[in-house]
Amino acid sequence: MDRIKIITIFGTRPEAIKMAPLVKKMRKKPCIESKICVTAQHRQMLDQVLNLFDIEPDFDLNVMKDKQSLTGITSRVLIGLEEIFKSEKPDLVLVHGDTTTTFAGALAAFYQKIRVGHVEAGLRTYDKYFPFPEEMNRKLTGAIADMHFAPTLGSKQNLLREGVNENNIYITGNTVIDAMEFTVDNNYTFNNKELNNIKFDRRKVIMVTAHRRENWGDGIKNICKALKSIIEENKDTELVYLVHLNPVVRDTVYSILGNVDRVHLLEPLDTKETHNLMNKCYMIMTDSGGLQEEAPHLGKPVLVLRNVTERPEAVKAGTVKLVGTDFNKIVECANELIRDKDEYQKMSRAINPYGDGKASSRIVKAILQYFNIEHGEFKEFN
To answer: Which residue ranges does the record assign to the UDP-N-acetylglucosamine 2-epimerase domain (predicted)?
Structure first.
């Protein structure tokens, strides 16, 4: 085989950020016919990333609907991909991570007996409802995949325990670190005027995202009450909360933090704005998975607003700390980082276990070796 056709599928902003550098790397290989299919599971936030990285999809399922359900997303993606796969007949389908698009994409490829490559494979919490539905999306995708691109040794070990053939697992590092090479600028000026008015050099600015399904209800309420307490107790701090578009989240956030001094409630930012906010802020509090990987690359401590994480490497390395949604624990751990310089330095200087900016190159190399187009030693990320 001299040339292969690869269809890369993604549907949300986090997937797009992490797949963009891989898409760009594949474009440079004449032996790869690379095509892009977006499901638009999240339309607006996905389009921001496509524009940033200058990616024009070949196929756009545009499945997003108001108040969409997981069942609805899954069924629309399956139906939409069936015709594409039948007409295109790719040699490999690439999916990323743990979204509903990921699982549905892998399943649709399986139904057509097309090989599947799973980028960011092997992350586990071993609790099928935390995070929900991501944990099972990832495990089910892993059961289908032919090639597993694990970001770390720990992820590989998870796959081995589940019986995956070691020859089909490749430790690559995480492609999100590759993406940040395109987005972070130390001299960056924000498009958002409110951010440009914040004195990052004079205040300890805390960046916050919190929106996961398992935190809806009491979880988000506790988080917001804790954030209010932290800001009121520490006069040298300022808070930037990027509030998810979901009304379940927004109603709670605005009711508790809407009129609090030194709190900025902003719409979700595009990728470049977000990465540069991370770069300028003091610390990060989040229930996101991706930020746990991105922030350590920039030397920013992370308090994870979840009880479990599928990224234990960061906890072990000391770059992140699990605090859950307990009011007292959130306040205690945040105050420690704000007030204890030694504790802050310990977390901010820990080594990022997730990548060196070469993950995309490793994935392309592994694919070309798998299809016997290239040969030679595959050097894993250590």
So the answer is: 24-367
